[in-house]
Design a protein that fits this description.
mainly beta; 123 residues; 11 strands
Length: 123
């Protein structure tokens, strides 16, 4: 199995940047597809970005494409979400997830999830 722990969230002004990290433990991390979701108060969890186990393909929601970048370092068992040009509407708890199926990662059906990290973007 895989255990995931997010970090790097915080308070930032609009237009600023943050880099979120998701540290994983488990013997088969390199074979898992990884993704990021976010959930704002009163709203359902929504897809943000995903990355294949090989790092060859990335997927982004329209709301973050061009501003966010997902990447991974399998040697460090870590996936990252670089967030630039942040907007107040990006405020949410961000969760990373992992699954051997990319379809489940993108659909939010992954078995493995982190505890989340809060990102707050002020005006």
């Amino acid at each position: 199995q895989v255990q995931l722990v997010e970090s790097g969230g915080g308070l930032v002004q609009a237009g600023g940047s943050l880099r979120l990290s998701c540290a994983a433990s488990g013997r088969t991390f390199s074979m898992y597809n990884m993704g990021w979701f976010r959930q704002a108060p009163g709203k359902e969890r929504e897809f943000v970005a995903a990355l294949t186990w090989s790092g060859s393909s990335t997927y982004y929601s329209d709301s973050v494409k061009g501003r966010f970048t997902i990447s991974r370092d399998n040697a460090k068992n870590t996936v990252y979400l670089q967030m630039n040009s942040l907007k107040p509407e990006d405020t949410a708890v961000y969760y990373c997830n992992a699954d051997t199926s990319m379809s489940r990662v993108r659909a939010g059906g992954s078995v493995y999830w982190g505890q989340g990290t809060q990102v707050t973007v002020s005006s």
